[in-house]
Structures are given as structure tokens and as C-alpha cells.
Specification:
60 residues, alpha+beta, four-stranded antiparallel sheet, 1 helix, 22% helix, globular, DUF397, DUF397 domain-containing protein
Length: 60
């Protein structure tokens, strides 16, 4: 089975302009939904969790 990329349910139907994430063997992949063919960033799961925690603390 291939990698399952997901986007946030908060993204709505905005024409696909969002960030997608996927669980990978080496951690978490992050890519731009507009430019899927340009590759992705990969980070360890613990660093991704810390990134999300920090982003949730930021005012919107």
C-alpha cells in the first residue's frame, strides 16, 4: 500500500492550497498540495509533534 497523504479537516475546500502530511517509515512527511511533484520534507515524529504543539500556541 502506498503512502497516504492527508490534509487538515480545517482546510475546507480552498482549491487544494494546503499542507499535506503522511506517516513515513522515517518519520513524518510534509508537502505542499499545489506542488506535490516537488518532493517533501521529512522529520522525526517527535520533532513533528513539537512543531504542532508550537503552532497551536501561536495566535491565529
Amino acid at each position: 500500500m502506498g503512502v497516504q497523504w492527508r490534509k487538515s479537516s480545517y482546510s475546507g475546500d480552498n482549491g487544494g492550497n494546503c499542507v499535506e502530511v503522511a506517516r513515513l517509515a522515517e518519520g513524518v512527511g510534509i508537502r505542499d498540495s499545489k506542488n506535490r511533484g516537488c518532493g517533501h520534507l521529512t522529520m522525526p515524529l517527535a520533532q513533528f509533534a513539537a512543531l504542532l504543539a508550537q503552532l497551536k500556541c501561536q495566535p491565529s
